[in-house]
Amino acid sequence: MTNVQGKLLGFGAVAIAALLPSTASTQVPSSRPGQQAAAPATVQAYPGSPGVPAGDYNVSLRTAEDKSLPNMWARDETFFQVLDGPVLGGASGIRMDKDGRSIWVYQRCGTYDYCIGSNDPPLIKFDAKGKIVARLLGGQIVYPHGMTVDRDGNVWVTDLRTNTHEQGDQSAKRIPGAAPNGAVVRKYSPQGKLLLTLGTPGVYGNDDTHLSQPSAVVVARNGDIFVADGHDSAPSNNRIVRYDKNGTFIKAWGSTGSGPDQLNCPHDLAIDSQGRLFVADRGNTRIQIFNVEGKLLESWTHWGRVSGLYIDSNDVLYAVDSMSGIGQENRFMRGAHIGDAKTGKLTAFIPDPLGNPAPWNPLRGTSGMEGITAADGAFFVSQVTPPGLAKYTPRPWKTKP
Q1: In Å, how far are 45, 309, 316, 374 from 272, measured between CA atoms?
Q2: HSE (CB half, 13 Å, CA atoms) of 281?
Q3: CA distance linking residue 31 with residue 23, whole number of Å
Q4: Could you give all domains of the chain from N- to C-terminal order, each with its CATH number?
Q5: d(C-alpha 212, C-alpha 204), whole Å
Q6: Residue 335, Cα to own-chain centre: how many angstroms?
Q7: Tens digit of pLDDT at every position of the chain (401 positions)
Q8: 3-state secondary structure 188-240
Q9: Could you identify which of 147, 195, 285, 319 might form a hypothetical disulfide with 93, taking C-beta atoms 3.0 to 4.6 angstroms apart as the criterion?
Q10: Is 80 in contact with 393 (CB distance < 8 Å)?
Q11: Measured between alpha carbons, how far is 115 from 107 in angstroms, rounded to an integer?
C-alpha cells in the first residue's frame, strides 16, 4: 500500500457505497430497554463468496422502529486534514479535548493493528478546524485501541496487546530484545508526559496488577478509573476493573459469557451525568449499564452491536456499530445510533456508507464507524477498516436511513 492509498483509504466510502445494492428486510417486533430482542430466525445457507458468512442475505430481522429512525446528518470526509500529513492507520479511539473543540485520535501507526517497529506517533491532536497540532507517543505503544480525556485534560490510552506473546497470525510482531510492553493503560499529560501506568507491561493476567487485552478506559468525576479489560481475541478477561485516582486497584467484576453479569468483548465505556457506567458489550450485541460497584442496572439490546460509545454533557448517547451483519441476521445496520442516555429512547440512525457485508459487498469483520465523539451539535467518527475519519453535522432536511 502506498502512502497516498493509506491516506485515502477512509475517504472513498461514499463513492463505493453508492454502487452497492441495499439489503431487503422484513419486520419483527422491536426490543425495548431492559428486554432481550426476539430470538433470531434460522436462515438458509448461501453459497456466497469465499470468506463471506453463509446466510440468506435477502432477509433481515431489523425492526420497523429502527428502520423508521431519521437521518438528519451530513458526512464530511474532508474536515480532518491528513492528506499532507501522516499515513492514517486504523483508529478505534477518538475523543474531544478538554477545551470541547479540539479532537484527539488514537491511530495504529499507518496500519490496521500494531505499531511495533514504527516510530510513527499514534496519538494525534486536531484543532477545531481539523488541522494537526500535535503528534505524540512515537515508539511507546504496541497496539493502540481505546482512549479518553479526563477533566484535567490528561489523555488516557489503552495498549491492547503485548510485544512478548504470539497473537494468532500476527506472531511476527515480536522484536527480540525489545523491552516488554503492551497490555496496559497509560495516563499522559497533554504534552505527552507519562504520568501513570495500569497493568504490567508485556504481561497478560487477571489479578489486580495485570490486564489482558484492555479495550477502553474512562475516568469518573471523582477520579476513579474504569477499564474494560477484554477484547474478542484470546487471552481476554472480559471484566471491568475499577481503580482509584492514584491507580490503586479497588475491584473487578464480570466474566466471559452472555449471562446478565457477563461480558463478551467490552469494547468501549462511557459515564452519564448520574455516574452510571455504560459498557459496549459488543459480542453480546447490547449495552450494559452498571453502577460504580458493578451492579447491573439495565441492559439495552436495541442499540446494535456497539463498538464505540460517547455521552455528551446533555446525556445524549452516541453509539456506533461496526460489526453487524448476517451473523446476527442483519438485525442492525452498521452505523451510528443517537438517543437519550437516561431513557434509552433512540432519536436517529445514520447508516455507515459501506453498509453491511454481503457476497456482493465483502467487508472485513469490522468496517466503517468504530469510534465516536461529539461536541457543539456535531459528531466525529474514526474507522479501523478502512482507516478514515469523518465529521457529521446536522442538515435542514430529514431522510430515512
Answers
A1: 42, 11, 9, 14
A2: 29
A3: 21
A4: 3-399 (2.120.10.30)
A5: 5
A6: 12
A7: 333 334 534 333 333 333 333 333 333 333 344 444 433 333 334 444 555 778 888 889 999 999 999 999 999 999 999 877 788 999 999 999 999 999 999 999 999 989 988 889 999 999 999 999 999 999 999 999 999 999 999 999 999 999 888 766 554 466 777 889 999 999 999 999 999 999 999 999 999 999 999 999 999 999 999 999 999 988 899 999 999 999 999 999 999 999 999 999 999 999 999 999 999 999 999 999 999 999 999 999 999 999 999 999 999 999 999 999 998 899 999 999 999 999 999 999 999 999 999 888 888 889 999 999 999 999 999 999 999 999 999 987 655 55
A8: ECCCCCEEEEECCCCCECCCCCCECCEEEEEECCCCCEEEEECCCCCCCCCEE
A9: 147
A10: no
A11: 9
For 108, 199, 226, the CA distances from 248, given in Å and listed in that order, are: 29, 11, 11
User: What cell does 62 get?
Assistant: 431489523
Task: Report yes or no: 43 and 8 within 8 Å, Cβ to Cβ.
Answer: no
Q: What is the DSSP letter of 332?
A: S
Got the DSSP string for 275-308? -PEEEEEGGGTEEEEE-TT--EEEEE-SS-SEEE
Contact 213, 203 (CB under 8 A): no
Chain CA centroid to CA 5, Å: 23
Question: Can you spell out the DSSP letters for 231-275?
Answer: -SSSS---EEEEE-TT--EEEEE--BSSSTT-BS-EEEEEE-TT-
Cβ–Cβ contacts within 10 Å for residue 19, how many? 8
* Rounded Cα gap, residues 92 and 288, in angstroms: 20
Secondary element (H or E) of residue 185: strand 182-188
**Phi-psi category of residue 137: left, alpha or beta, with phi > 0 → left and psi -120 to 50 → alpha:** left
Burial of 163: CB neighbours in 10 Å, binned 0-12, 13-18, 19+: buried
